[in-house]
Design goal:
By secondary structure, the protein is α/β, with parallel strands linked by helices. The chain has 10 helices and 12 strands. Strand 8, helix 6 and strand 9 form a beta-alpha-beta unit. The model has no long low-confidence stretch (mean pLDDT 92).
Length: 280
Amino acid sequence: MSEGEAIRCGIVLHPAGHTRSPAMHRAAYRVLGIDGCYEAFDVPPADLAQAVANFREQGLRQFAVSLPHKETILAMVDEVDPVARAIGAINTVTRVQDRWIGTNTDWLGALRALEREGPIEGRRAVVLGAGGGGHALAYGLCQRGCEVFVLNRTVKRAEALVEALGAAGAGGLGELERLAPDILVNTTTVGMNEAVSPVDAAAIPKTGVVMDAVYTPARTKFLLDAESRGARVVLGKWMLVYQAIEQLRIWTSMSVDPPASQDLEKVVNVMAEAFDRAGE
């Protein structure tokens, strides 16, 4: 990004009322001294292709992609990087000259969130859910050399994901207890704004790290059950924060990873605080 050049970006999703990304990115821009704006674009699925065409005409530099568009938009960009292609979903689109380039930062955000609790290399991990989020998590954990199992309500979908990634195994949600993972992540939407969990509390391991991709409420029933069992929990907001940090790196060409000219932890904390305020 050239010095003094303002950037305009945003997030495409539907519905848009729940997103906290604008507040987080704007807070990061302030602390990093970036001249830019970040908007939420509520785009129904039927209007996505036209919205992308409009963004191109308007000179939009970049935009994030959230549900339900992460898979559909693959066919609407000019180039998909190898990581996003392997995951099968895009959450970040950047304009390079006149071409839209799609990538995925969800997997890296999730790994960095888990790594707040320590190294994860080589651990046994279970991912609940075989949708876009589950694919990103399973991909990232495989990249870290974990023994990865995918459990899903529809077992065939989990099996297809495991085969595509070369993961360790697949099964139904009821198989969690026998696997006794070191890392457990829920990537389903079960528990969003409701006091339910995708699995029985007794199946959650008593040790290890448990994370929920759901961030509303902050402590889902899944996480509360995990805490009561003695596991260390990671809130869903940290996944959102760290994937946004990677988006900043891509979009601004600034170093936001250590060693860096800016204090990474300061940016992380500012974004997390903005996340919390946006939910009040």
